[in-house]
UniProtKB/TrEMBL annotation:
Belongs to the RER1 family. The keyword Transmembrane helix applies. It is a multi-pass membrane protein. The chain crosses the membrane at residues 36-55, 61-79, 117-135, 141-158. Involved in the retrieval of endoplasmic reticulum membrane proteins from the early Golgi compartment. This is Protein RER1. Its main location: membrane. One of its GO terms (biological process) is protein retention in ER lumen. Keywords: Membrane, Transmembrane, Transmembrane helix. It is found in: Membrane.
C-alpha cells in the first residue's frame, strides 16, 4: 500500500478541540431540562461580571455592548416566530397567532427559544468577562451617557414591543395561563379475572 493513500489521523490539536466540543455538548444536553439551575448560574455569572466592572472602574463600552446584545436577545425572546404584521397568507399551513376570538388556539412560538436565549446570553457574559482581562478594551468614556443611551433605547424598544403585544393580543410567557393535564396515574394495577 502507498503511504499517501492511507487516511491521515487527526492531529492532537483537532482531537483536543473535538473532545472539548463533546464535553460541552454533553453538558448542554444534560442541562437542558434544568431551566432554573441554568438561569441561576447565568445570573450569578452576570453578577460577578458587574462586580468586576464596578471594582475595576472600567470596561464601560464592553458593558454597554453586552447590554445592547442582551436587549436584542430579549426582544427575540418576546417576539413571535411568525410576525402577524408581515402580511402572512392565511392559506399557509405554518403556525400563526389567532387574530380574532373565533380563531383556533395556537401556542405561542418564539422567534428565539428559551434555551438559545440562555445559551447566547451566557456566552455573551463570558466573552464580556474575558474582555475585562485586557486593557485594550478599557476605552475611557463618560459612563453616565452610556447608561442614559441604554435606558432610552430600552424604553423605546420595549414600548414598541408592548404595543405589538397588545395589538396582536399575545402574551409571551406562560404565567397565569391554563395548563391542561392528563389523568393522574395512581400506580394501582387492577387485575381483571
Amino acid at each position: 500500500m502507498d503511504s499517501d493513500s492511507a487516511p491521515r489521523r487527526p492531529g492532537m490539536v483537532s482531537q483536543f478541540f473535538r473532545r472539548m466540543w463533546e464535553i460541552q455538548q454533553n453538558f448542554m444536553d444534560k442541562s437542558t431540562p434544568h431551566m432554573a439551575f441554568r438561569w441561576t448560574v447565568t445570573l450569578l455569572l452576570f453578577a460577578f461580571y458587574f462586580l468586576r466592572v464596578y471594582f475595576l472602574q472600567g470596561w464601560y463600552i464592553v458593558t454597554y455592548a453586552l447590554g445592547i446584545y442582551l436587549l436584542n436577545l430579549f426582544i427575540g425572546f418576546l417576539t413571535p416566530k411568525i410576525d402577524p404584521t408581515m402580511g402572512q397568507d392565511q392559506d399557509e399551513d405554518g403556525p400563526s397567532l389567532p387574530t380574532r376570538s373565533s380563531d383556533e388556539f395556537k401556542p405561542f412560538m418564539r422567534r428565539l427559544p428559551e434555551f438559545k436565549f440562555w445559551y447566547s446570553g451566557t456566552w455573551a457574559v463570558c466573552i464580556a468577562m474575558f474582555c475585562t482581562f485586557f486593557e485594550a478594551f478599557n476605552i475611557p468614556v463618560f459612563w453616565p451617557i452610556l447608561v442614559m443611551y441604554f435606558i432610552i433605547l430600552f424604553v423605546i424598544t420595549m414600548k414598541r414591543q408592548i404595543k405589538h403585544m397588545i395589538k396582536h393580543r399575545y402574551v409571551p410567557w406562560s404565567s397565569g395561563k391554563t395548563r391542561y393535564k392528563g389523568k393522574e396515574d395512581t400506580g394501582k394495577v387492577v387485575m381483571s379475572k
